[in-house]
């Protein structure tokens, strides 16, 4: 920036910034031809005691009149510093914003606790909590997925409910007041995803009364909650993974999967997309000859095609035409 070397140490005083840079800004604006009444420029920080006193009076008056209050908003938060972490405060990750997910509470059926890793939690409502960006597709759930070698925790939340998810997502939820103590998720038990496979579940608004937890190898434990709800009609990865389990006996044997957990579950049609029909992802997987869940290039292409076509349909004709209004037992989280 052309600042002399002997001038740089002066910037350790924050007030030096206020005196050093404004003249350069003023010169540049004049060169641009900006018509500015410079007599009306002033400093708006505590370095200007008169303006600072006015702002303090203003806010104290509003607060005394109960017109303002402290609140919360979604932001990147630093637990170590106990405060929001803005773009320029980060060593890495500048420009990253919170991602809003809808948390689907998929309840473990109470009769299934005995003889499983969840037996110590008898008497509590336990949910596999799946993060999704498309809650409107919950009618089409056929199962949920966990990562066999992923590490999950059973975390005590408000109302004495227990959420099974990754530790990272539980920490994020605890900072959103979903746990009894803010910032301190209480882990009741830890387990590998393999121990959850085969659990019978009640998925909200699903066509099937009972669905099962099944393995999915491509889950990223650093994204969402580590639990993925499966809607094969509109999600190509879900369709490919479910079909693999339905057709590959060796794979079922490897993960100790009973055929009854996968065989009866057909694709549930829920959203009609112009040009793609009511089972867009499943139909494209068949027509493009996707071989398995590891056929990543084709699956990514199908996912993009489904999403782009759906968004175009929504923009052109309105959301209500393509899907029913949904009110699911969900919680919004940001991770």
List the helices and strands and how they pair.
Blueprint: H1 14-32, H2 49-64, E1 77-78, E2 83-84, E3 100-108, E4 125-132, E5 143-146, E6 151-156, E7 161-165, H3 167-174, E8 186-192, E9 200-202, E10 211-215, E11 227-230, H4 236-247, H5 249-254, H6 280-287, H7 296-317, H8 319-322, E12 330-334
Parallel strand pairs: 4-7, 5-10
Antiparallel strand pairs: 1-2, 3-4, 3-9, 3-12, 5-11, 6-7, 6-8, 9-10
Helix pairs in contact: 6-7
Give a brief outline of the structure.
The chain is α+β, with helices and mostly antiparallel strands and 335 residues long. It has helices spanning 14-32, 49-64, 167-174, 236-247, 249-254, 280-287, 296-317, 319-322, and strands at residues 77-78, 83-84, 100-108, 125-132, 143-146, 151-156, 161-165, 186-192, 200-202, 211-215, 227-230, 330-334.
List keywords for this structure.
alpha+beta, 18% strand, Isoleucyl-tRNA Synthetase, domain 2, ten-stranded mixed beta sheet, two-stranded antiparallel sheet
CATH class: Alpha Beta
What is the chain-wise order of helices and strands?
Answer: HHEEEEEEEHEEEEHHHHHE
If you compute it from the alpha carbons, what radius of gyration comes out, rounded to the nearest whole angstrom?
27 Å
Please give the number of β-strands.
12
State the low-pLDDT regions, or none. Answer: 319-335
| Total domain modules | 1
- Terminal-residue CA separation: 37 Å
Architecture per CATH nomenclature, i.e. the level-2 architecture = Alpha-Beta Complex
What would you call the structural class? alpha+beta
| CATH fold-level label | Isoleucyl-tRNA Synthetase, domain 2
Indicate the mean pLDDT: 88
State which percent range the strand residues make up: 15-25%
């Amino acid at each position: 920036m052309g600042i002399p070397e002997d001038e740089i140490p002066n910037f350790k005083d924050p007030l030096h910034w206020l005196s050093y840079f404004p003249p350069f800004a003023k010169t540049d604006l004049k060169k641009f031809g900006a018509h500015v009444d410079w007599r009306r420029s002033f400093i708006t920080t505590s370095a200007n005691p008169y303006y600072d006193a006015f702002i303090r009076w203003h806010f104290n008056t509003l607060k005394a009149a109960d017109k303002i209050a402290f609140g919360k908003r979604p932001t990147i938060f630093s637990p170590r510093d106990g405060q929001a972490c803005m773009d320029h405060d980060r060593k890495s990750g500048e420009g990253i914003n919170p991602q809003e997910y809808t948390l689907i509470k998929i309840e473990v059926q109470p009769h299934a606790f005995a003889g499983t890793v969840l037996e110590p939690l008898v008497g509590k409502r336990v949910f596999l909590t799946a993060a999704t960006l498309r809650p409107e597709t919950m009618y089409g759930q056929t199962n949920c997925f966990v990562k066999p070698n992923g590490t999950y925790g059973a975390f005590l939340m408000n109302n004495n409910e227990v959420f099974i998810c990754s530790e990272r997502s539980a920490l994020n939820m605890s900072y959103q007041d979903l746990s009894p103590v803010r910032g301190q998720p209480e882990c009741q038990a830890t387990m590998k995803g393999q121990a959850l496979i085969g659990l019978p579940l009640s998925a909200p608004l699903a066509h099937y009364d009972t669905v099962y937890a099944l393995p999915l190898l491509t889950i990223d434990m650093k994204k969402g909650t580590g639990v993925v709800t499966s809607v094969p009609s509109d999600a190509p990865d879900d369709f490919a993974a479910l079909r693999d389990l339905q057709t590959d006996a060796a794979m079922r044997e490897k993960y100790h999967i009973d055929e009854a957990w996968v065989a009866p579950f057909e694709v549930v049609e829920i959203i009609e997309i112009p040009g793609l029909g009511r089972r867009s992802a499943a139909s494209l997987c068949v027509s493009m000859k996707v071989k398995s869940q590891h056929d990543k290039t084709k699956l990514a292409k199908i996912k993009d095609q489904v999403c782009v076509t759906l968004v175009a349909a929504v923009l052109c004709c309105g959301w209500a035409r393509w899907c029913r209004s949904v009110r699911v037992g969900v919680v919004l989280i940001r991770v």
